[in-house]
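Repro:
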Amino acid sequence: MKERSADEAAPIYFGEKLASSQAFAGLFRDGMALVEETAAYLDGPGRQESKKLERSAALAYATESMRLTTRLMQLASWLLLHRAVKEGEMSLIQANKEKSKVKLSAADFHDPDNMELLPASLRELIERSHKLQSKVRRLDNTIHTHPTPNQAAAVNPVERQLGL
């Protein structure tokens, strides 16, 4: 039986391949489309809707639209960073260092009463951005979490037997 070299014995981590998968491509496409759709809404119909709101609703609109914009810019940064990995412009190790500048914090809290004051279109964009953020956070954990040496050895329990 052929002996395996040290390079061949090294485990292949699924997370390293995930950035170039179809799942990532779909997430990237959906995420960037949401960024564009939100920008178009806030610059057009959203601006018109906000002018018609009462003072308290206008304040809620300004607050939530700023949170939405910030969230989407962070998500777009993460997506663009990992697209660079996919296209070979940077390594996953470099991306891991750079991603520390991107804040993928848990969903921010908002007052449900304020949300009721917002136009339905804005509420829907906010909800979609939270779903995107959740997907990106899960993918980020998968891509950037490597198993410990004990976990890596446990991935294939037959490997030891094959070596014998």
